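Researcher: Let's do a round of design. I'm pasting the structure tokens now; please hold your answer until I've finished.
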């Protein structure tokens, strides 16, 4: 048989490549080669399933840019294909003064990368999540699961 595209590996990157190629070339014949009995049996099948906001990446970096774009693309894909996801946001909590300094660094990155967030005081944190013990937190509403 002849194929227009052969994809080696049935993880998220391989399947996404095949999917996007098929969308752009509907008549194309595509073959996905996977050594396992099912798709996504390695790294793709063991990730946390989080759609990240991109707060950890260096300002202006390609990783920061692509994380934001990829997150939006994933949400669009889920909506278009009626796949449920939860826009629950993410709390990053400082439990002591040393972590408060690290949180300040994340705050700077978020501002530089244009990532929406809100600051949560220790008192507000206890109201929001009574079992969390922290001195301060940042809430990133664009993170999802």
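Researcher: That's everything. Go ahead.
Model: Designed sequence:
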């Amino acid at each position: 048989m002849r194929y227009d595209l052969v994809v080696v590996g049935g993880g998220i990157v391989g399947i996404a490549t095949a999917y996007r190629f098929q969308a752009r070339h509907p008549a194309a014949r595509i073959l996905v080669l996977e050594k396992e009995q099912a798709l996504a049996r390695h790294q793709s099948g063991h990730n946390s399933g989080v759609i990240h906001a991109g707060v950890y990446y260096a300002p202006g970096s390609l990783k920061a840019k692509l994380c934001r774009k990829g997150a939006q693309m994933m949400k669009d894909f889920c909506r278009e294909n009626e796949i449920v996801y939860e826009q629950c946001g993410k709390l990053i909590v400082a439990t002591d003064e040393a972590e408060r300094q690290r949180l300040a660094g994340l705050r700077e990155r978020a501002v530089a990368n244009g990532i929406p967030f809100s600051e949560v005081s220790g008192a507000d944190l206890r109201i929001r999540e009574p079992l969390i013990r922290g001195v301060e937190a940042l809430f990133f509403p664009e993170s999802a699961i």
